[in-house]
Structures are given as structure tokens and as C-alpha cells.
Amino acid sequence: MVSLTKIITACSLLGCSVNALSIVSSLRPYLSQALDSWGSESSDSKLNPEIILTFPGEDDKPVPGDSGIVQCQILEDQILSLESVEIAPNPPIRGENLTFVAKGTLSKDIVDGAYAEVDVRYGFIKLLHETYDVCEEITKVDLECPIESGKQVITKTVEIPYEVPPGHYVVNVKAYTKDDELITCLTATVDFPPN
Ligand SMILES: *[C@@H]1O[C@H](CO)[C@@H](O)[C@H](O)[C@H]1NC(C)=O
Predict the structure, then answer these.
(1) CATH of region 9-192
(2) Where is the MD-2-related lipid-recognition domain (predicted)?
């Protein structure tokens, strides 16, 4: 059991990423449609494969720790400053629990109305684009808005469903306050080998 003192938005955001991954299994039908519609014309843009380049840019910076998470858009002010993110096991294993510990500092309180845009790509295919209510999501890690500014440490364990299709995933999370101030921009890359 983890003792969990304070939790930050990053937690919910990372939770978001992982939740996004865990719903990947429920997206299998979309995934096969996306694969089927490769090269064919579809009026539903959600199912249109989209090639996205993933080279790190000059506004990307690795977050210290072993998670492989990268902070993006660092040329823009961000309310959350992440000191480190550690994950175990590393790399994550399908069908097993994943625990992460995130340390960071918020320069402002996070209040109702904050939202996160989450993109999940599977290989080169855009699998999911979803907007989440940050204050609603953080209740899943026993937190409540407002989240006070200052230094925060969060620990969270999530189970990664075995049904997640093996492959290369890129999860991008951009969180904003209700006034559209950037809280954080994070990109996580996860490879699940076939097993
Ligand atoms: C993951 O952790 C939960 C809670 O500690 C536990 O009930 C569950 O059995 C664990 N799952 C695996 C696959 O280890």
C-alpha cells in the first residue's frame, strides 16, 4: 500500500494517460476500422489514419526519472513544474500493475473548469482524442479541486489490461485552466511487446 499524502494534477494527468491506455482495449473495433480504412476514403475523420511525425523538437524536454515522459511546449509558461516521474515496472507490462510516483510544483491553485486534452496514437494511427474534466478525473485518485499550489507528490497504481493490443503507443496530454492557461504538456511513449 502506498501512503499518499498530497496529490497533484500531474497525477490525474498521468492517470489520464494510463486511463487512456486502459481504454485502448475497448477501442479495438475502432482500431480495426482504422486499419481497414487505411488508404480508403472515409467521411468519418475519426477513422482516418493520420501520419504524425514524432521527432523530439526544441520545445521538448525529458522529465527526470525513468518514465520516458517528455514535457512538451516548454517555451510556453506552464503552471506545473514536474521534478521527476518514476514508474515500476519499467517498461510497463500488459496484465500487470503499474505504479508511478510523480513529484512537482504547482505555481497556482487548480480549480473547477480545468480540462485536459488527451491524444492516443497507436503506431502512426490517431486512436483517440478526448477532452477530460480534470477536477472530475482526479476524484479517481481521491483528490478534490481546488488543488493548492506548492510542492506535491503523488503515487498511483493502475492495472494495465492484458487485452491492450501490443504495439507502440504515444499519449499526449495537454491540460489547461478554465481560462486556457497551460498547466502542463506531456508526452509518454509506451511499447507493449507481444507476449
Ligand atoms: C493490482 O493491484 C491490486 C490492488 O493492490 C490487486 O488487487 C491486483 O490483484 C493487482 N493485479 C495484479 C495483476 O497484480
Answers:
(1) 2.70.220.10
(2) 69-190
The answer to whether 51 touches 39, Cβ cutoff 8 Å, is no
Q: Are 40 and 131 in contact (CB under 8 A)?
A: no
Please, which residues have CB within 8 angstroms of residue 116's CB and are 6 or more apart in sequence? 12, 13, 16, 131, 132, 134, 137, 173, 174, 175, 176
* 74 φ/ψ sector (left φ>0, alpha ψ -120 to 50, else beta): alpha
Residues with CB under 6 Å of ligand 1 are 96-97, 157, 159
The alpha helices in 92-163, defined as continuous H runs, are 134-137
Instruction: Please tell me the predicted confidence (pLDDT) of residue 117.
Output: 97
Query: What backbone torsions phi and psi does residue 24 show, to the nearest 5 degrees?
Result: -55, -35
Could you tell me if 67 and 86 are in contact, meaning their C-beta atoms sit under 8 angstroms apart? yes
Which residue has the CA at smallest separation from atom 9 of ligand 1?
97
Does residue 28 surpass a pLDDT of 70?
no
Decide: 121 and 24 in contact? Cβ < 8 Å. no
Burial class (CB within 10 angstroms; exposed 0-12, middle 13-18, buried 19+) of 159: exposed
Of 73, 101, 103, 76, nearest in space to 186 by CA: 73
Mutate to test the pocket of ligand 1, among 22, 97, 98, 155 (most ligand atoms within 8 A of CB): 97
Q: What is the CA radius of gyration of the chain?
A: 17
